[in-house]
Amino acid sequence: MKAEKQIKNTKTGFMKAYAALSKRKAADKITVSDLCQEAEFSRNTFYTYYKNMEDFLTKSDLMILEDVMSEIGKYRFDMDFSHSIEFYTYIKENADMIFSVLERPGGPGLSGIYEAEKEYCLAGWSTETQLPPEQLELIFAHHFGGMFSMLRAWWKAGFSVETETFKELLENSGMFGLYHFVYTV
After folding, report:
1. Mean pLDDT value across the chain
2. pTM, 2 dp
3. Which of 58, 67, 85, 88 sits in a 20 to 30 Å window from 73, CA-based?
């Protein structure tokens, strides 16, 4: 168990280094040497886990997508959002890594998260409503686009809104819609 945690920490260190480098350099210009220097790990450590930069990026993308989906998967469609503060805290603490994956040219972008979350949400929502799947897909597209845009704007603003306040804004806009939230509150 300790070894698994150490491996995850090492891989996370490389991902954080990549995120920092991607702010200063084009993604296709980041080398293994750059990554190792930024992460303060040896090249041997890098090659213990990855074959090359492409392998690193692929595995890092997958790790981020799995982590994000694990957090999203905690929602149980019962309108109890108490767990969501953990999700937003996770986003806040890992934003640079997450957005370096989502915004990397040639990376998976949002498609991996979008498709996985769509499948998850549509399955859960279909037990709560009589709406046909094609209408649920449209609602999901609106929900996902708005949520991602809010998360990205929060990150770009340096998390200037407190996590609890952000949670309430996102939940209320999702539960009550724009009209109710903006015009009746």
Report:
1. 84
2. 0.71
3. 58
